[in-house]
């Protein structure tokens, strides 16, 4: 299991949090996703088989920026 904190820009309300949470959770192998609106972070736990780029792509596809 791996964990990474993504710095995500553009999340401004609770609906953004839901959108990101759903998109990340749909990635195969993701175990948990915790979004902090205040910090602009998305903390994800995922299986070793998952490539980090799959997660950042899922976030970007929803229109948010990933540092
Ligand atoms: Mo809230 Mo997020 O009105 O792009 S859904 S800011």
From TrEMBL:
Gene3D superfamilies noted in UniProt: 3.30.70.100
GO MF annotation list: copper ion binding
Residue span, HMA domain: 2-67
Pfam families linked to this entry: HMA (PF00403)
Signal peptide: none
Matching InterPro entries: Cu-bd, Heavy-metal-associated_CS, HMA_Cu_ion-bd, HMA_dom, HMA_dom_sf
Organism encoding this protein: Seleniivibrio woodruffii
Keyword Iron included in the entry's annotation: no
Annotated GO biological process: copper ion transport
Record's protein name: Copper chaperone
């Amino acid at each position: 299991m791996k964990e990474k904190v993504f710095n995500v820009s553009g999340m401004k309300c609770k609906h953004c949090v839901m959108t990101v949470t759903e998109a990340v959770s749909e990635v195969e192998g993701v175990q948990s996703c915790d979004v902090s609106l205040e910090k602009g972070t998305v903390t994800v736990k995922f299986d070793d088989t998952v490539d980090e780029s799959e997660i950042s792509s899922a976030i970007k596809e929803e229109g948010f920026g990933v540092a």
